[in-house]
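User: I need a structural model of Choline/carnitine acyltransferase domain-containing protein from Oppiella nova for a docking pre-check later this week. Nothing fancy, just the predicted structure tokens so I can convert them on my end. Input:
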Amino acid sequence: MSSRQGLSSTAASVDGLPKLIVPEFNKTIDRLKVSTKPFARSGEELQNLYQIIDDFSRSDGVGAKLHSLLEHKSSQTNNWLSHDWWMNKAYLEGRDSVMIWSNPGLVFPDLKTLTRTANKEFVVQFISRLTIALFEGNLFDADVWT
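Assistant: Understood. Predicted structure tokens for Choline/carnitine acyltransferase domain-containing protein:
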């Protein structure tokens, strides 16, 4: 089968996919709190962050309004995320290289071609740099990664 036939086959089955659900708002807020905890540098900073999240998630807050709009969009389409939002945000609006900004895997070495030892060394070095960058707050500084 050619890759072109594979694409046709994949595209043809899109209509058979289930509707993309909108995650429950309260569960999303709970997950937000859990996922942001490692980024707080102190207990006070964490409490401030939680207060911002709580204000955002109040029943009369911005988060509830945005969630309502998201549910409305979901009622109008089978996939509230794809095409207009994903296509525009991930690919069309950005003026940077698509290869780097939408597929970060391309900036990593091909781990399949590395020796087992070199592969482990790369992973350890990457995790070390990521951890240091997170703790020092300079995750996006280019010199951390070079």
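Before docking, keep this in mind: The first helix runs from residue 3 to 12.
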